[in-house]
Design a protein that fits this description.
5 helices, about 30% strand, Cyclic_Pdiesterase, 2'-5' RNA ligase, globular, Cyclic Phosphodiesterase, Chain: A, alpha+beta, ligase activity, 4-stranded antiparallel beta sheet, ligase, about 30% helix
Length: about 180
Amino acid sequence: MKIDYFIGIVPPGEYVERVERFQRKWIRQSGVEPHITLKAQGGLTPDKKWLGNVKRVCENISPFQVSLGKPKYFGNNILYLSVDSAELHTLHQKIVKEISPSHELIKRYFELDDFVPHLTLGKEHYGGNISTPLSKDGLTEMERAAEEELTPYPAFKVDFVRVYELDIVKRRYETFLDIYLGG
């Protein structure tokens, strides 16, 4: 049994619901609630020894603002909402450096210099069969609809980060722990 974790930032509840309603038009079941990825799986081991390090980093970071923006693509097969926040980059770098994943894991999960904060809307192919794949046409349709249905894109205060754990029975990432910023 493989236990996977990652760390994300959750938009305000009403916007999470709005994105989930939007996604359900194309995707039967998403593998996780809408979130901004802060730290991918690399180095987040099942023993959870990294958790204390993440808590220490978060204690020393003040709450900050994040703005969601227009849809963009990774390649041509992952559609996401863009994210703007210098503080988010700083928090990402501090957490990655504290956890110290291998260079290979940093590259595999596009961290540090390759980090692009984002809120995924849909993917052409999902790994691990966690969700329903979309066609390229479906992604194009989703992009057009997002510009109408998900605007205005919100700006919001981040005062906690969420650690997600993969529930292998539900085939979905669920909340494991919320860690508040600034102690």
